[in-house]
Design goal:
This protein has about 170 residues and is mainly alpha-helical. Among the domains are: about 80-140, no CATH class; about 140-170, no CATH class. About 55% of the residues lie in helices and about 0% in strands. It has helices at about 25-45, 65, 85-90, 95-110, 120-140, 140-150, 160-174. The longest helix is centred in the N-terminal third of the chain and has 21 residues, at about 25-45.
């Protein structure tokens, strides 16, 4: 096996072209480059954007769009013909209040005409829903009780009512 002799360092770049004098630098080009860089950084700081960021526009699917029907009533305000009107209506009358009023009118009509409705299961399901909602309406929450007690504040006998309520509540717990 033959070994090759190492190449001396001065011959490593023998095929490279001979060195020339350094390039002359145009001062005006450097100043133009510096001015462009300053303009870019100033604009970057004014708009508070990182390089290559631009505006971010992304469509995000809502839960209802991702899974389809979520509840009995789903309102897609984005797909509404008049989203402003939709928000205005629901800020005045919530969905529960709307549904309650509709059921208050619909339930007696369905009950009166149940014999003429072909889908007996739908009539039964509607009756059960109306009954369950009526039970929930009658059930008072702690917030309901606090709101009622809060309405007594201006009454002359507020302290007497509050004392009676405390006594009744202690009687329930013991």
């Amino acid at each position: 096996m033959t070994r090759e002799a190492p190449i001396p360092p001065d011959h490593l770049f023998a095929s490279a072209p001979p060195r020339t004098a350094p390039l002359a630098v145009d001062g005006r080009a450097l100043l133009a480059l510096q001015a462009a860089w300053l303009e870019w950084t100033t604009k970057l700081l004014r708009t508070n954007r990182m390089p290559l960021s631009g505006d971010v526009e992304q469509w995000i699917r809502t839960w209802g769009e991702a899974v389809g029907q979520v509840g009995l009533l789903n309102v897609n305000v984005a797909g509404s013909g008049n989203p402003g009107l939709e928000r205005d209506i629901t800020s005045t009358w919530g969905y529960g209040r709307q549904l309650g009023r509709i059921l208050d009118v619909l339930a007696p009509l369905v009950e009166k005409n149940a014999a003429q409705i072909d889908d007996e299961d739908a009539v039964t399901a509607l009756g059960k829903m109306v009954h369950d909602i009526a039970l929930r309406r009658k059930r008072a929450t702690v917030a309901d009780v606090l709101a009622a007690v809060g309405a007594w504040k201006d009454d002359a006998d507020f302290q007497a009512k509050l004392t009676a309520l405390r006594r009744e509540l202690e009687g329930l717990s013991g």
